[in-house]
Amino acid sequence: MNMQETPDTRRRGLLAAGAALGATALLPRIAPAQGGAKKFQGVTLNVSTFSAAYPKLLQQWLPEFEALTGAKVNYDAPSFPVYNQRADLELSTKGSAYDVVNVTFIYSSRWINSGWLTPLDDFIRNPEFTPADWDVNDFLPGARAPETGKDGKLYGIPWTAEALLSVSSRFDLVEQAGLAFPDTTDDLVKVLRAVNKKERVAGFVADSHYGWTFVPYLHAFGGDVFRKAPDDLFPTLDTPEAIAAGEYYANLIREFGPDGAVTYTPDQVTQALKLGRVNFSDAGQLHLAQLGDPATSKTIKTLKFGLVPKGPAGRFPGTAVHALGIPAGSKKKEAAWAFIQWALSKQTTRKAVEAGYGSPARRSDIDSQAFRTKQVINGNDLAQLALDSIEQASKSGHMKYRTVSVYPQIDQQLNKAIALIASGQANAKQAFQQAQAQSIAELKRAGIAL
Amino acid sequence: MASIAALRGPGWEAARHRAFLFGLAPSLAVLLAITLLPAAALLVASFTPLSLTDPVGTFRFDDPLVNYRHLLADERFLGSIGTQLKLSVASVVLQLLVGLGLALLLDGKSKVLGATRTVFLIPMVLPPIVVALIWKIMFTPDVSPIHRALEAVGLPVRSLIANPDTALWAIAFADTWQWFPFTMLMVLASLQMIPSDPIEAASLDGATRWQLFRYIVFPHIRPVLIVCGLFRLIDSFKAFPLIYVLTDGGPGTVTEVTNYYGFIQAFNFSYWGYASAIAVVILAGVFLLSWAVGKLGWNDHDRR
Question: Structural domain of residue B255, as residue ranges?
């Protein structure tokens, strides 16, 4: 989505003019250049993130930033996997194609600790670049942690701190069966047996990115990805606990999944839940918040959200943080920081929350009345569930596996292993032993001493 | 004439030769820069453990065959070669059969046949990603008109791309849909160049339609079919958009061809040295197969 190519330039011009008029008290303060000229007049910034709710709002509000600073912004927002591949390649070559990028959670350690991003502390500390009331400490400490490098510097400003939650889109069917929302892995199977294929609604589906959706179950069964991330990265995918978790989870997909369940993308899962074709799933809060849209969701009156189920070893909700950062190769770092500072200022994030944005990373937004009231969907407090999950994750530290630099390699082994079991090509033991062997080979290739 | 030759002499020939070389030099330099240098860079990278997470530390040649040794022990890579061969053979054979069959049916001069030929060319001119999206819809049971129609007549079919027994066939089918027009077009051109005399003579001698095809038409179009097969075979090694959009190499690894595996190693994990070694193996394989297929009959006319 290249903003320069937007056909509706007149409307954009009017918006820019309107924004310029109002851009004094309400908008974030960005230091003007001497002599009254706009500080970044003539600068063109290339911004890229994956497509999601917050980036979509930023794209709408770009005229404000452009009116404030004089900079032009090209905002590119492809889908999540496409963005990651593109950004990973661009950052690895230290190219200057992008000035602001999304620091994707799973890649954060790899990008930060390889020196591919710019430390932001100097920009934050310098009053010439950042007003004192911008307040970096307002961002949740748990959200800033994955954006912090081994050198202790901050490399990304979080725009989302989200949690993986459970959902039932047709909870009415569960109630008809006289059951409650499943709290444990055993309860989940009991409920799915009772409701699967009732009224042609499949029981369960998950995004086929199992390296994200399966891991809470792996932890719940007492397994883990590494022996002790981030210090001991020996993979532990062939433990009895991991195999049991794999067997359990793949069976959910095989026994209760819709046709073609192993090919479902996040958007397909969201659509299936909105249309009531599938009852249960686990999905990120960003996706689940879309189920509350009365214009597109047919299941808004029958929704029920909950925490991911508890297993024999406890409950381990998945959490993710995404941030905005500046590539090391950018040649317009000051303007890039001005963009990030504007995009994640208190004023902009609050405006996003008021527009219905569902997973802010500023504490002041999370505690605001505007946010809390909007996050109640069909009587479920999505925000509270997410906060509970994030708090749980920060206490137990079970998400540390996710930000080690080699996790993308292991992530894909988990995707393959679950698909192998769910499609009947291997049993859990074979699939997870294979994943273990291949993970070790991948880690050795990455030069990690095991 | 003899006096002109004497005037020119060997010195003149050498000067002419040098002038030709001088004239050709810029294009040779460009050719070298845009084809051979990248290929050489690929080969050089394949002898290093180059990873973009640490490009300086990993661009070293202390163990130049490390990637190739790893490849021999990498089950996923070895499996991907088998998958590649299955996909290539299945899709090329299907494309040749369908393309040949339709070319024979559509060989004629009527306007209807002309219009039909044009319609059949559409898949070939579509961008590959559009073809992949079309088949993503066709193979997704919830939205697929094919699945819905089959269900309506009481013959429901499970998702083809989620089933490990059918996923590769589904990709071969979609690839055939996109590329059979290429064979059809080439064969049609060849059919239109068959002289009518031998066909008329054989018909007068009482040859059946099958005999006409077997002994006159097929020998004439055989070199074209071999060229088509060769082109499509080489192209089949580049299979990417269909796999990327439809299956992501799955379920498991049943549709993960070598090309796709190399892509994952390079662009998902940044192992450029290892991915370069995979690319070198693909390159060698394509050369070898092209040579072998060429031997099958490419020069039959010359030999006869």
Answer: 67-303
